[in-house]
């Protein structure tokens, strides 16, 4: 990221969390963290450098998480079979990292997006999520790409669970 890429009113993330850029004057900028409301003066150059470090760390974390058997992820996928459209995970293999789950992860990685796949227990669903964000608590509330296999089709979309706790701002 370049220092000149920052925009007033846009949100970015550093090690402390997600923040909004309130003002920019030359290289100086004022930012406010979403979680705490704390505001500071900083430089766009230093924030750009931090964002670059975070991107590299996440890529390295993903690479390490996928090392070993990851070179085989998706290699067994040759397409969907009739039995995959049962709407049930029983007898299917398409969700595994060796099949569609891994094949999609590999394609995304080739385009600079490092997402890992997880098949959902007892459901005809696979999720793809950033390894770093998935490890944050609670993992179920992290945004995910998803594929759902039904009796007649394969649907893809964006999946986020809603919190059932009244005090949780993510539930509203």
Task: Give a brief outline of the structure.
By secondary structure, the protein is an alpha+beta fold. It is built from three helices and eight strands, in the order ββββααββαββ.
What can you tell me about this protein's structure?
With 172 residues, this protein is an alpha+beta fold. The protein has 2 domains: 64 residues, SH3 type barrels (Roll); 88 residues, no CATH class. Helix content is 22%, strand content 26%. The strands form 2 sheets. It has a 4-stranded antiparallel sheet with strand order 1-2-3-4, with helices on one face. A 4-stranded antiparallel sheet has the order 5-6-7-8. The chain starts with 10 loop residues before the first strand and ends in a 13-residue tail after the last strand.
Mean pLDDT: 81
| Number of H/I helices | 3
Distance between the termini: 33 Å
Shape: elongated
Q: What structural class is derived from the secondary structure elements?
A: alpha+beta
Please give the order of strands in the largest beta sheet.
1-2-3-4
The main pleated sheet reads as:
4 strands, antiparallel
List the uncertain runs.
none
């Amino acid at each position: 990221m370049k220092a000149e890429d920052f925009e007033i009113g846009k949100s970015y993330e550093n090690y402390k969390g997600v923040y909004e850029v309130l003002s920019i004057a030359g290289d100086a900028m004022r930012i406010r963290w979403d979680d705490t409301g704390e505001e500071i003066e900083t430089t766009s150059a230093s924030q750009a450098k931090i964002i670059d470090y975070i991107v590299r760390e996440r890529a390295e974390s993903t690479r390490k998480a996928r090392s070993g058997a990851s070179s085989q992820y998706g290699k067994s996928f040759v397409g969907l079979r009739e039995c995959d459209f049962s709407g049930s995970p029983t007898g299917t293999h398409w969700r595994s990292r060796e099949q569609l789950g891994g094949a999609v992860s590999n394609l995304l990685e080739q385009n600079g997006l490092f997402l890992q796949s997880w098949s959902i227990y007892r459901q005809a669903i696979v999720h793809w999520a950033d390894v770093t964000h998935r490890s944050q608590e609670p993992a179920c509330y992290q945004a995910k790409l998803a594929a759902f296999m039904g009796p007649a089709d394969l649907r893809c979309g964006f999946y986020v669970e809603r919190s059932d706790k009244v005090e949780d701002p993510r539930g509203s």
